[in-house]
Amino acid sequence: MKILTFWTLLSLIFCINTKAASDLTPDYLRCEYLENPFIDEKKPRLSWILKSEVRNQYQTAYRILVASKVELLEPGKADLWDSKKTIGDITSQVVYQGKPLKSRQKCYWKVQSWDKKGQAGKWSDWATWEMGLLEEDDWKSQWIGKDFSANTQPIPYKNKELFLPPSPILRKKIALANKVAKARLYVTSLGLYEYKINGKKVGVDFLAPGWTDYNKRLYYNVYDVTQQLGQGEHVLQATLSPGWYSGYIGYALLIGNPVVRAFYENTPALKAQLEVTFTNGETAIFTTNEQWKAATGGLIESDILHGETFDARKVPEGWSQANFNDEHWDDASIINAGKRNLQLYPAQPVQVTDVIEPIEIHKRENGDYIFDMGQNFAGLVKLKVKGKAGDKVVLKFGEMLHPDGRLMDENLRMARATDTYILKGDPEGEEWTPAFTYHGFQYVQVSGFPDKPTKGNITGLVLGSNTPRVGHFETDHPMVNQLYQNIVWTQRANFVDIPTDCPQRDERMGWTGDAQTYAGTAAINMDVSAFFTKWIQDLHDAQWEYGAYPDYAPAPPVRSTDTYAPGWMEAGIINPYEQFKAYGDTRIIETGWENMEKFMAFHYKKSKGAYFYPEGSFADLNPKGGYGDWLSIGKKTPPDMLATMYYGHVASLMAEMADAIGKPERAMHFQNLAKKIKTAFAAHYLNEENLRLKTDATAYGDGAGYVDGQMGFSGNTQTAYANAIFLDFLDDNQKHIAGNHLAQLIHENDGKLATGFLGAKQLLPALSATGHSDLAYQLLLNEEYPSWGFEIKNGATTIWERWDSYVKDNPEKMASLNNGMNSFSHYAFGSVFEWMFHNMAGIKADEVAYKTFTIAPEIPKEEINYVAASHQSIHGNISSSWKKVGEKLFMKVSIPVNTQATLFIPAKSELDITMDKKRLDQHENLQRGHFFEGKQVLKLGSGTYQFESIIK
Ligand code: BGC
């Protein structure tokens, strides 16, 4: 017998060990929803997703190590936190429970999971987070700036005037005596900033530090600038721009509001500190203070809505170099900006997320050129030009062309949306990208270009909050595919620090109604966890003292009558709820709980404790009733009926959220409230005999003062039924009959939809829920006005604000349409995607964060034979696809590790189904439910599975 050597023995043991150990591996480690972030949350939440090749795999325990140095990231050494082996299947929202975290502390962490058999998997790779400045006195810097507005002449513009002061530039030379081991820049501004070191921009962010109620909180950013600093002299530079703080906001100018700009304060200011640790262990801190110098440079006008003018001749030659003499510059002014609540920006910043090349250039008779970018988007262009000093290139942005080829700019209203570059005459050519503005556009009109431009002279830069893409959707239907692309593009164009209504005209505000209706779709397409963490705070900050949430957040007084509106104000409850649902986020509920309770109390008071709103309850608003089913077609759904349903709806959401944060009495209270509202609703708005929804239309008189009030009001509308069904206001029998009423209304309307902002999302799901899936598909595929397909037939590359925003080749109709409110990039109607994902692909969360979910695709009889969708949830990637070939249906699904799905497989009979080529009854341990109404129910754990069935 051969004697085993020590080494063979060892490798044998090792081999056995590897076999025995689990392949379960944590991956994609995140802290507060971000990868390796800077944060200021003292109890950060950690998450990971799990990888394993084993089916039905799940986690039974985990262990997290957190250490102050990567070398200490070992069991027994981790100095900040060792969670020890903790039993449980939780992989997200795991709250750090280690030593208190200090300012500037860098934390290294990793995690290990145990699988369903109790076997340990491998440790994950390590990840980090780093704490920002947690204490007020960590900030040693002062607010600096320079007010140049006094000698600014107003510019006449569209019968009004614009006031666009030049941007201050700020400068400070520093010297570093040693080699740099670590350097951090902590920076914020009132207004927008661009910070450079030796002429090179720090970071890649735009529009920083974002828009908040600056009087309540102001965000700062942190950058690792170690690589940008060596021993020797350096120049710290900053440019400031008014931004949302002191620039123009919304339609204030249009409507003649007494204040049109500088809603917060007039003078932008910078606060920054550069903290350096040298290799010898010494530290230095370079603050903003009175030793900085200030001047104006090339940026002579700058505003988010109106664009920028840059005169390259005015840039002080060499100001980014250490040997530049700034003695003749003014000293920077110390700005008295009061006490500010400084917090670290909690989301992905606005960045360039894509680059777009023009597809065509048209020459206009007057010598201008119009560049067609081929896609409507939000962002900027980079200009490349060669010419003489003083040549002036003017770029004007628009989303559409008139049929005669002119750039359409009426729909921008008072937004000048124009960038101007004045050349310095560099023989090598010049390049320029604006820094503090953005536009919503597909076309760029170029005037004054020195010679004939080519496509290479303009590059489109897509800007938006850099939320990771987590959704995909495709079919074999080109129009539906285009619709999906349009939805995604519209989201990208409007998720710019806050969820805006539109990116082009003089508005771009965080309209709450739009955001609440779109939140579900948003979270399927992109990881908006951090984005909405930020905006939900903006919402609470903007809550009125009397409890209502506003029309838009942040909410400077752009128009004094913009107060609150049913269906808009409920964003204060719906958006936190959507965040909870998508990510299992209970902290967002806890931090907003008091605000949300206050809102519910407002509802109670406003409804006089009657649990419903009779007609005319919101006649005190302007417009009366609020915005109602905004941009619907035909008779209006009574805003008070919708208000009642929204009141009941948010009461139910509050009950669910109360439960989730361990408040059983409040949960009970809100459940009862929801019940009472539903009963009161039915008593007032439901005709008991024929189960039609009704209203007393006479209560609205001639409708004057109500949005589209002249159309008259009816309870018997598509939007009324769609909401009553979708928001669960009816019992099963009533629901069924309401579904028939809804279907009948659509038939009477020539098979077309008539819904607005408060009905478009609910319509198709309500049809599907009541057995009218065929009609839902018909509405989706319709290409006649009004429909999603109509937009696409007319060339849309984004979702329009109105169902008839544009009619190709119909100049007459166009002339009547292009009024002041016609955005081509408005995501609200894109909320139909919820139905596409939930019903066409069939993926619906059961428990929050897709811990358990259903896959139940609705297969249409015709026109669509293939659908594939996926969503990277906080638990990992879920996918569902199906393909119909003759009488056969092929399905493929993926279920992430540590989750479970309930699958509904359409088939003639259970014997007509195979899974991975074997009949279902031949699979051992398969959790088969019943075969019911042509569908086989299966419960599946993680893995990828293929099915084949006969469906005809
Ligand atoms: C915005 C909308 C918003 C609305 C209120 C509009 O001007 O663009 O999307 O919700 O006003 O009805």
TrEMBL record:
- Report the residue ranges that make up the Alpha-L-rhamnosidase C-terminal domain in this protein: 842-915
Q: Where would one find the signal peptide in this protein?
A: 1-20
Q: Does the keyword Signal apply?
A: yes
Catalyses: Hydrolysis of terminal non-reducing alpha-L-rhamnose residues in alpha-L-rhamnosides
Gene Ontology MF terms: alpha-L-rhamnosidase activity
Identify the residues that the record assigns to the Alpha-L-rhamnosidase concanavalin-like domain, covering every copy.
363-463
* Keyword Hydrolase recorded: yes
Q: Name one GO biological process term.
A: carbohydrate metabolic process
Q: Keywords on this record? A: Hydrolase, Signal
Q: Could you tell me the superkingdom of the organism this chain comes from?
A: Bacteria
Where does the Bacterial alpha-L-rhamnosidase N-terminal domain lie? 179-353
**Which EC main class describes this enzyme?**
hydrolase
Q: What is this protein called?
A: alpha-L-rhamnosidase
* Species annotation: Cyclobacterium marinum (strain ATCC 25205 / DSM 745 / LMG 13164 / NCIMB 1802)
User: What taxonomic ancestry is recorded?
Assistant: Bacteria, Pseudomonadati, Bacteroidota, Cytophagia, Cytophagales
